[in-house]
Amino acid sequence: FQGVEMEPADPMTARLTVHYARERVAEMILEAEFDYVWWLDDDMVFPPDTLTRLLKHQKQVVCALAYQRAEPYNTCVFEWKEETHLPGRYEYLNGIEFGGLRKVDGCGSACVLTETSVFKKLLKKRPWFDNKKFGEDLHFCKLCNEASIPIYCDTDLVIGHLGGRLVVDYDVVARYRHAKAERDALLACVR
Fold first, then answer.
1. Cβ neighbours of residue 109 closer than 8 Å, sequence gap 6 or more
2. Residue (of 58, 49, 50, 159) closest to 117 by Cα position
């Protein structure tokens, strides 16, 4: 990428659990005074201009739209639901509208661009990544929400998720949901 300075992550992080590795990478990004960190999971398939597209949005936290790699192929973006007697929970945002940026309450870390300014704002909220209540990615999103740092999803940037021999992308999810609706309609007629 022209004009984008990138360095490989510390090889020591490869032996850590995901939440500790992300925490260490975030520390290194701050120490090196980089502007961004681009989280990209190793089981994702993405267009070559993905980073450029995310950078153009000029948002503190922005992700591409990804789907889980197994049925029922939920989106990896979430909304927060308050509960009356519970602390609340994240729910899959499967009805997200396509076309442009959409504000979301949480996202998986499959493909997320984060300004390092976010970590500076959250210095007193460490650890940034913890897997005790949610996953490490949603823990980070919860901290962002509590600090009024918006999270966006580029719904035009749909990336694939490797799932065995299948790359789960929008087309796979659409075919799956169509077939499931047809099956459910047939079953309803039989009953």
1. 22, 39, 41, 136, 137, 140
2. 58
The pair of structure tokens assigned to 94 is 């499967």
Series of mean pLDDT values for 10-residue runs along the chain (191 residues): 51 68 92 95 92 97 94 92 73 90 96 97 93 89 96 96 81 86 83 66
Cβ-based neighbour number of residue 144 at 10 Å = 23
For residue 110, CA distances in Å to 40, 74, 88, 137 come to 5, 13, 23, 9
Q: How many CB atoms lie within 10 A of CB 158?
A: 18
| Burial class of residue 55 (count of CB atoms within 10 Å of its CB; 0-12, 13-18, 19+) | middle
Q: Which residues contact 46 (CB under 8 A, 6 or more apart)?
A: 40, 64, 111, 159, 160
- Please state whether the predicted TM-score (pTM) of the whole model is above 0.70: yes
Tally Cβ neighbours within 10 Å of residue 69. Answer: 19
CB 181 within 8 A of CB 174: no
Beta bridge partners of 115: 36
Please report the DSSP string for 65-101 in residue order: E-B-SSTT--BSEEEEE--SSS--EEEE-TTPPPSSE
